Request: fold
Amino acid sequence: MSLLIVGTVAFDELITPFGESGRIIGGSATYASLSASNLCKDISIVSIIGEDFPEEKLALMRSKGIDTDGIKRVKGGKTFFWKGQYHNDMNSRDSLATELNVLEDFDPILPEKAREAEYLMLGNLTPAIQMKVLKQMKQRPKLVVMDTMNFWMDVAMPELKEVLKEVDLLTINDEEARQLSGEYSLVKAAAKIFEMGPKYLIIKKGEHGALLFHGKELFYAPALPLEEVYDPTGAGDTFAGGFIGHVCDSDEVSFDSMKRGIIYGSALASFCVEEFGTHKLRDLDRGDLHDRVMRFIRLTDFDMKMS
Reply:
C-alpha cells in the first residue's frame, strides 16, 4: 500500500537539560516518514528545502524506502529552521528562533505517483496548503489523516473547518481539542469535532498517552514510562507516522486497526525521545520495535474476576 506524507523537512537546533544537539535534520515529514518506514514500504514525501539541505540526508531517506521526488529544492534558498530550549520538566519549551525561509513560499505540486497514494497524511501546515494537496489527489485515499495546531485555529479557523470536512481522522493535543470544540470535557470535545467532518479523532496527551475516538467507541493507550526523556522534539510526528504506517501496512481502515496503530505509534515515539533528533528512527531494528510493542501490551494486560 502507498502512503503520501506532506509536511516540513527542516533543520532543528535543540537545547535540553541533557545537552545541545547542534544543527540537525527535523521537520514533521522527516519524523513521520522515518517512523512510518519501519512499517510501510511505499512512502512518498512532498515538502520544500533550500540549497543548504545536504543531499546525503535525502539519500538516507531513500535508503529507508522513502521517495523524495516530491521534495522541491529551491536554488539559493535556505531551509526552514527552528531552535528551541526545553525546561527541566521536558514538557515546556521556549522557541529561540523560527526562520520560515523557503517554507514561506511553499506551493506543493504533487508528482504523478503521489497523486495516486492510497493513504494520505497532511502534516501541520496552513489549511490552504492542506486543501490544495487534497484537490490534487486523483482519487480519494482510503484514509486521510490531518494534523493541525492552535495557531491555525487562531488565524484561519474558517479555512481549517473547510479542510476538516474532507478528512477522515484528525490528530491534535488535548489543549487544541478544547480550543477547536469549545468544550473542556474531551468526550464532549470529540462529539463536537465529529460534527465538523472527521470520523475518527486522536487526542494526544503527551506523557499521559493518547485517546482514540470513533462515534461512541473510545480507546486509551498510555505512554511508556521511560527512565530518561532526552529530546521530545518530533515525538508527535513520530507517533502519527507510526500510526498511519501500521494502518497502511495492514490495509485495514477500522477501529481495531487504529487501536493497534496507536500502540505502534506510541512505541516508535518512545524510541524517538531517547536521543536527539531522528537517530533512533533511522537505525531501529524490527526486533527492537516488536519488543517495545510487547512492553506496551504487558503494561496494560491484567485479569480480573468479578464477584
